[in-house]
Amino acid sequence: MKPVLYVEDLPDDVLFMQHVWERAGIAHPLIDVSDGQQAIDYLDGNEQFKDRKKYPLPCLVLLDLNLPRKSGFEVLDWIRNDPRFKSLKVVIVSGSNQDEDMERAQSLGITDYVVKPSGLERLYRVVVDNKERWLGKG
């Protein structure tokens, strides 16, 4: 089962998503990286991510916008300009509810845009309600 790459710099948000992922019974492993450059390195198979058996390509990227080293927009732009990832699903999971961020993300070809909900129950509902659209059946 292909993993899902979660690009998030806040450790608490990573823990919350891991908890919700397990609770929702999603079989795709959730792999997290903590900044935009790591996300690019993971996808490109650079540095510590060279071993594709250990670090397989994801079927979905959950991407925060406000990240260290490279922003979520820089990562999204990189993904969309690499022919290998033209069809890779990307869901923005961000604290930003700004129309200009949502519009810019849409223009770069995202699958979905989720404003980070407050609380585990709300996050759980978002994941459960969207998992089929994000990951397909299975």
Structural class: alpha/beta
Give the averaged pLDDT, no decimals: 95
| Largest sheet composition | 5 strands, parallel
Major sheet strand order: 2-1-3-4-5
Distance between the termini: 10 Å
Helix/strand order, N-terminal first = EHEHEHEHEH
- Helical proportion, percent range: 40-55%
Number of helices: 5
Number of strands: 5
- Roughly what fraction of the amino acids lie in strands? 15-25%
Parts with pLDDT < 50 across at least 5 consecutive residues:
none
Any idea what the radius of gyration is?
A: 14 Å
The gross shape turns out to be globular
Describe the overall structure.
- This protein is of the alpha/beta class and 138 residues long.
- It has a domain at 34-55 and 65-98 and 109-118.
- The protein has 5 helices and 5 strands.
- It has helices at residues 11-23, 36-44, 72-80, 99-107, 120-135, and strands at 4-7, 30-33, 60-63, 89-94, 112-115.
- Helix 1 (11-23) packs across helix 5 (120-135) and helix 2 runs parallel beside helix 3 (72-80).
- The model has no long low-confidence stretch (mean pLDDT 95).
